Amino acid sequence: MYKDIITPLTKEKVAQLKAGDNLFITGTIYTARDAAHKRIYEAILKEEKIPFSLEDNILYYMGPSPARPGSVIGSAGPTTASRMDKYTPTLLNKGLGGMIGKGKRGKEVIRSIIQNKAVYLVAIGGAGALLSKCIKKSKVIAYGDLGTEAIHELYVEKLPVIVAIDSKGNNLYENR
Amino acid sequence: MRYISVEEITTNIKEMCIEANYKLASDVDKHIREAYTKETSSLGKSVLKQLNENIDIAASESIPICQDTGMTIVFIKIGQEVHIKGGLLEEAINKGIGLGYWEGYLRKSVVSDPILRENTKDNTPGVIYYEIVAGDKIEITVAPKGFGSENMSRIYMLKPADGIEEIKHAVLETVKLAGPNACPPIVVGIGIGGSFEKCALLAKRALIRSIDIRSDKPHIRKLEEELLDEINKTGIGPAGLGGKITALGVNIETYPTHIAGLPLAINISCHVNRHVTRVI
Description:
The complex is a heterodimer. By secondary structure, chain A is α/β, with parallel strands linked by helices. Chain A has five helices and seven strands. Chain A has a single domain, classed as fumarase (Alpha-Beta Barrel). Chain A is about 20% helix and about 30% strand. The longest helix of chain A is centred in the first third of the chain and has 12 residues, at about 35-45. Chain B has two domains: about 1-20 and about 65-145, no CATH class; about 150-275, CATH 3.30.1330. By secondary structure, chain B is an alpha/beta fold. Chain B has helices at about 5-20, 25-40, 40-60, 90-105, 145-150, 165-180, 195-210, 220-230, and strands at about 1-5, 70-80, 80-85, 125-135, 140-145, 155-160, 185-195, 245-255, 260-270, 275-280. In chain B, the strands form three sheets. A four-stranded mixed β-sheet of chain B has the order 4-2-5-10. Chain B is about 40% helix and about 25% strand. In chain B, helix 2 packs antiparallel against helix 3 (about 40-60) and helix 6 runs parallel beside helix 8 (about 220-230). The chains are: A alpha/beta, B alpha/beta.
């Protein structure tokens, strides 16, 4: 029922994914939401260095609640993906392999996913406590001043996601 | 005359912010568990199973139900026989919010200016509504509101001739546009009547009413029931991945309005519809 995917998310792995597949993601992924996207996007436009390589990596649209002492992270579910649509094609052109969020994507993003052979995955919105149990390590690696919106490098084990838009453009949300 | 200290208000607000974010309100909790048994789509069922597990983990391990612990909406009804002593009420409320979000390990999601967007770092200020009522007590409701669903809410200034038919059309249009973004199964708060801003406030108030309580007006009660049925026929389903449970409840609040108008506001909440009420 569930396919295991280990990061990095290479083009070969992406090619095998189909809309509707249930996946368990294991490995390193990075968080970025509205404010971090704006900074990465502006850095790319100015041809400045960005804090980590996007190549074959996965971005998780997520801003966690604070970790209690002794915990890795707080609640950690996905945020609405369409707010990143303005920035996404530029990031995909830089080699981003996949994204985890919730909700539909715009036409330009879907076109860019097909063009760049990437994938859009969804996690269940509002299941932040459950999803946090899959996060084994968390470290802020950039934009620390943004608080919850800083870029966190996460190590996840069996993070449950569903393929919403695959690299051929098949879309789980179509006609819904 | 009865005296209530600002410290008592601060402490209660602090505790209510924490309680609301860790333990789902009992009405929503009951309905989301029932939804699992009612849902027939296998994907929808697996989403609801995860959501039920999530509620249990949140309560037992003290992890917020959702990482978006919301902007803090506060409704405060002050009995006119009450005298608040020891400081300013608004400061006391915001102090309670700040303490609750820090001590409860809740996410600070508020920016001080909508354009400049600098985080206030303690989730203040809250959005506070005051009401003066009879008596010598204070009733406080704390409702932390997530913005995935808030962003999908809408206002329509309909015409009187539009009537029930257009109200239904507008609500269904809003729910369909919200789709997966609002984290279904949703709770739909609807305000009808009043003025432009009044109907929005009615919609917000509708969200803090238990979804087990129907309107006491027969024609509104009928509309609530019909809308719930029609929303669940859209097939949007849990997480927007298809199924018959799209909404857990529809609550409508109304107010008299102008001869020329039919204001309608639809405030959508995700399944994490948080509200805690206390009387001091």
